[in-house]
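SECTION: protein entry
WANTED: fold as tokens:
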Amino acid sequence: MTRSRNTLFICALLIFSINFAQSNTAIAQSSPAEKLVNTLPDNVVGFVATSGGDSLKPAFEKTIIGRVWNDEGVRTFRESIKKELISKAGQEMPELKEANVFEIAEGIIHQVLARPFVIGAARKDTTQGPPIYGFAILDAGPRKAEMASSLAKLESYADEGDIVEIEVGSVKMHGPRDPGDVPGYWGWVGNYFVFAINDGDGLAIKYLQSNVSRPSPVYLKNVPGTGDALVAHVNLDKMFNILSLIAGMEGGEGEEVFAAVEAVIKELGLNNVNSFTERVGFDGPDIVSNCLLEMQEPRTGLITNLKPINLSMFDMADPCAISATAVNCDIAGMYDTIMKAARTVIGDDFAEVEQGIAAVEAELNFKIRQGLLESLSGPMLSYVLPGGATMQSPQGGFVIIAGLKDAKLWTESMSALGKFATEQSDGMVQVSSQVQDGRTVHTWAVMPLAMAQVMPSWTILGDRVVIGSNPATLTSAVNQIDSGTKSIRSTDGFRKVTAKLPGNLVSFKYGDSKLQFIQLTTALQQFWPMATMFASNAGLKLPFVLPQLSHIAEDMGPSCQYSWLDAKGMRSHYRGAGIEPSLGAVAGGAVGAGILMPALARARQQARHVVSMSNLKLLGTSVIMYADDHQGKLPDNFEQAKEYYKDSIILESPLKPKGFDGPCYIYVNGQSMKDKSPGRQIIIYENPKYCKDTINAAFLDGHVERMPRNRFRETLEATYKQLGREMPEI
């Protein structure tokens, strides 16, 4: 659930910080997103919805993320990046720049993100085609006029006649002239803009046309919301029902595959899971998220391996830690559940899997299930120390404390694994052991990591194994456990977030947002100049200096994230600044975009080459088929072989630049199918006048090559020499 939440945080930042219209609207008790969800069609499989910037702006501006986004330095920084990215995109895609597509798209995005909208999918009853359709619904409200104008402008870029008016139920919509096998439509129903695919009956607009008030769905009532910056819901029952229907349509192999998937789901205990719902919103300076993984009782499979935790585990965590997490999971039980599911699917062939595991264990000289996993008891605490926490580890470090059922078994397993790693690493891994204060400390030094002071070390302390990122953090962790003095549990921040907690906690994570943010920004300040250098090498000029945000960090409070089980299923809650994953995503995204932009351009060019080579393959096959039907005589030109390739569009290469008047493909006539070396004779080639380093060519035996220019010239010259003709100038 943590990954899901972090993804939604990042989405929330990217969505609601792009643009907010001037609005002082307060968040209503029933959020705009919730009201929009009430208009959704029947049999919804899943959706993602938002209340929109107009509604969320006042609450967003009070959050830490909102303050960061609206900071003057951040504004300048992001505008600089945006300008550079758009400029780079314009260089790579000049046709879009000339049509002002970037500006139009940005304007439409701003308009859309200001209003409540939802994107989802729903099930439909049909005997033909997929039993599912997709939809997007936007409540334009007072922005309808400007959105309709932008849409009309966007539609004007389509070729005349490509967009037609179609009837969807009693409503007139727009759609493509040739929708192919999957019909689609878009248009207005009152103030709602609707886009749908595979919905020929207009199911998506059913409740938009009626004024009947519908109650909020039960799944929303089961999960508290705070303004609904984002709402996500997936009905797993309906999703699997659709997969079952699709498998039934395919028959045979499709049904077998689905039966296997169904068996795995049952063994993992996921057949009891009905749905997943998450609501993310803003409350004061914090982001708040609530989730529910709804599942029936009795619960089986993976979920049964999650056990209750006790907050006393945090007594072992250093008070200086910037984050600490406790879980209680039967890892051996998890392993057994997964292997049982694998046995169900693989059947008799599972014996080969067991033999493979046994072979690995023999090579490692220890047992995985009956050794390493069996030695662990379940409760586990981990925490992260900031840079400077110890003089011996200036960059900080991590600590893991895990309960043991069998300390001897753990030691034997890890010793065998260390010996194997040492023997196989050619000196890159060194394992050492020494006695300190009556305990044996084992240290694993991996050359590249050791240079960064990361040398995982562990020792046994009673019925626990303590693991540190290096010997210094390990010693600090052992002293913390032995001392019984102040821990993270006694800090004001920890006490604040744990004042009101539900029972049956199966995980808990505490974070000092202020320290995390300071450490993250410090690391980014060190990393950013190098990142801008990489981006510069990729042709992207980013600002060298990151904005200073220490004044905002001072106001950050603690964060907490925890999960628990109740009668409805597994719930999860988060409250905190939400700044850590968001800031990392934005910074990484900016660098990534700069580095990937040229790669994407190369990928586009590569795709054009693939299409061009496909065209050459079809043309080459066509002239050979012509020869087969004409006593081995090849055609004099492409036109004579037209009945074999039919569509003249293959005569146009996607590599041809705009404004080029010459032919795309050049045909070498006068050849014979009786040639003794057809694999070396070029029959058709791409026009070299617009090709740079490589040229595509089709050969008399039917194969196609992308050739370096020099080799192409030599091969074409040999072809013309055999014909007794002079090669044309290229």
About this structure: The CA atoms of residues 142 and 191 lie 8 Å apart. The chain has 23 helices and 24 strands.
